[in-house]
Amino acid sequence: MRRTWLAACVAIVLLGGCQPPEGGKTQPAASGPKATEQKAAALEQNAAAGGDNTVPSRSEIIGKTEVQAVDPLGKEQLDDAITCLARTIYWEARGEDPASMEAVASVVMNRLGHEGFPNRVCAVVRQGNEQGACQFSWWCDGRSDQAKEDESYATAKEIARKALNLQLRDRTRGALYFHHRNVTPGWSTKYIKTAEIGKFVFYKPRGGDAK
Question: Which pTM was predicted?
Answer without folding.
Answer: 0.82
